[in-house]
Structures are given as structure tokens and as C-alpha cells.
Amino acid sequence: MASILPPDLIKRGWQTLHDNVEGLVPGNGSLTPRFILVGEAPGETEVTTHKPFTGRAGVELDKSLSALGVTREEVFITSAYRSRPFRIVTKTAKRTGQTYQKKDNRPPTQHELISQAFLIDYELAHLPTDLILTIGNVGLKRLLGPKYRVGDVHGQFFSGPIRCYDYQQQKFVPTKRHYRVMPTFHPAAVFYNRKIESDLTRDLAKFKQQLQSEGQ
């Protein structure tokens, strides 16, 4: 299990942090993976362990990987944004009624995604596989574009270039390399919406068929 990012890019990634962002979690896994899994961003646990999907969502992810017949050691896990974006919210303690402040996860902004685009662009360009599973909307939109929604296109395969960011042109451009991308729901989404559980199961079964058809 390793990161493919060179030290200078990791250092550059740390330099993108600002007040409402913390930590930096490089992608991690096999450097000859059966496929690449692209999520949204690290959470509270991940920025402590410095490994992707080690929080509560990681338990659900492991179930999904098991359904695919693979282990973490056989895939490469990364995310559209590599730091934890958060907002400060005020909560009320149930027992005491006292209010307190805590950090809540939030989706990364477009500006944040662009600021760290070079990290995932490097990983996807240098890993040998072209097969990608995106989980959730953020990873999907980062690779295929803002018009895509996981609720509309989950379980479908898209073949062709994906988006990478050109800092000279200051815009996303298509990659020269072609990839095969299948979007599905974030495993943790079943915590909040049990209705998508059957969709997720069918999506994973379809992705598993693809792996098996390639003799992987």
C-alpha cells in the first residue's frame, strides 16, 4: 500500500490549505491496481490516520470492496480533493443543553478542487489501469463534468477522456488518455437514504462483471 505522488507534489498540496481546510491525505493502495476508486474528500478520521476511508464510511467501503471480490491491497483509493473541508457549526449537548462548536464536513468548493487538481491528475496519469469507479457526485463531476449527477448515471460505463486541469489555460481540459469510468453512490449515503442500497448493490454487481470479464 503506497502513494504514487512525488514529495514535491505533496509539499505543494500542503501549501493549498486555508482556514476551513485541514490535513492532506495522498491516494493510497496498489501501484498496479485492478481499478482506481475516486471519492470526495477525507473526513475527520482520515486526516488523523493519513489514509483514505478509515472512518465510519470506510466500514461501508470495505463491504463494497468485499462485494466486488477485492481487497484494499488490490485497488488504489483516492479522492477529488485531498484535504478535509469543514465548516464550524454550533451544536447543543442533549444532556446538558449547553451549546458548543465543532467542525462538520462539507463538500469541497470548485476553487478548492482546482487548487489541488494536480494531485489526482498526476495519480490517474501515472497509474497503469484505465478502469475507474467513482463514488458520490464530487468525484464523478470532477472527472466527467458538472452536468453529470450520480442519481442519473449510476451503473453506466463512460469510455473516453476525463477532465484534468490546465493551470496555464486556467480551465479543465480533456486528457489525451482514455479511461473507463463507472459512477455509483457513496457507500456512506446508505446511512441517510436506504432507498439507494439496492441501486448500489446492482451497480457493484455490474462492476464486478466487468472485472471478471477482463480476467481480473
Automatic annotation (TrEMBL):
This is Uracil-DNA glycosylase family protein, clostridial type. The keyword Flavoprotein does not apply. It comes from the Bacteria. Keywords: 4Fe-4S, DNA damage, DNA repair, Hydrolase, Iron, Iron-sulfur, Metal-binding. The lineage of its organism: Bacteria, Bacillati, Bacillota, Bacilli, Lactobacillales. It holds the Pfam family UDG. GO terms for biological process: DNA repair. Gene3D superfamilies: Uracil-DNA glycosylase-like domain. One of its GO terms (molecular function) is metal ion binding. Residues 26-205 form the Uracil-DNA glycosylase-like domain.
